[in-house]
Amino acid sequence: xxxxxxxxxxxxxxxxxxxxxxxxxxxxxxxxxxxxxxxxxxxxxxxxxxxxxxxxxxxxxxxxxxxxxxxxxxxxxxxxxxxxxxxxxxxxxxxxxxxxxxxxxxxxxxxxxxxxxxxxxxxxxxxxxxxxxxxxxxxxxxxxxx
Length: 146
Fold this sequence. Notes:
This protein has 5 helices and 5 strands. It is α/β, with parallel strands linked by helices.
């Protein structure tokens, strides 16, 4: 079991949270606290950089959705970067690959190189995937209620 580390930084697009270690029942409240403590303005992008994520259970997925809901309440966008293959598989199985925009890495997200298909080849080429507005779905959707 790896301890969870959350590092916050600002990018031109908005706040970036770099998440490393295990995101599970015991550590999910730490991420929720970090997200709740952010200043998020309308039009900004909240980026969750998962490059160092080693494990994510259902509590972690729920916390990612809570972060999405916070962004939505502030009229901001949210994206995930560098989603590990095992987590991308879970997102795909439960349909959350249509809720979150996914980028190959934080630089692509903050530099607008384009989203990628989290189940794809990992090539990171621009144009794969769909836009955030297409993925977020209507208010009242399953993700909205979490």
